[in-house]
Specification:
about 130 residues, alpha+beta, about 20% strand
């Protein structure tokens, strides 16, 4: 008779584990579980990643060819220095943005109208807007 209670006691932890798994939705055949839904939701941001850079900002397309040459020349004429990057601006659609490092080490982003290559506005890279 002693063997019977020991077997029953040994089965209790296994039964508790099985109950916990079932209660938490740990079954592998449930296609509509919360885990399945979160897998689908996790895939969506990865697909949008092509449209957004790290940190959630929209990706900006680098300028190339004649557009790059003209935009950089116009920006450097207004703000002498060294071009850091030039791109189609995602925050201001329809504008080109050229980032320039000036001789004093500060940086300015120059926004240009792509039709005329005229400076529309500038932004100090510390976050202060210029009206120029």
């Amino acid at each position: 008779m002693r063997a019977m209670p020991r077997r029953a006691l040994a089965a209790v932890p296994a039964a508790v584990l099985m109950f916990a798994l079932v209660a938490c939705g740990g079954g592998s055949d449930s296609g509509d579980s919360a885990a399945g839904a979160s897998d689908t939701q996790a895939a969506a941001p990865a697909e949008d990643g092509a449209k957004e850079a790290a940190g959630g900002d929209p990706a900006e397309t680098p300028l190339t060819g004649e557009a790059k040459q003209k935009a950089e020349a116009a920006a450097l004429a207004a703000y002498p220095g060294t071009v850091v990057k030039s791109e189609e601006d995602a925050e201001n659609p329809g504008m080109y943005a050229v980032e320039i490092k000036k001789a004093d080490g500060s940086e300015v982003e120059v926004y240009l109208d792509p039709a005329t290559y005229k400076v529309v506005k500038t932004k100090d890279e510390e976050g202060d807007e210029d009206g120029s």
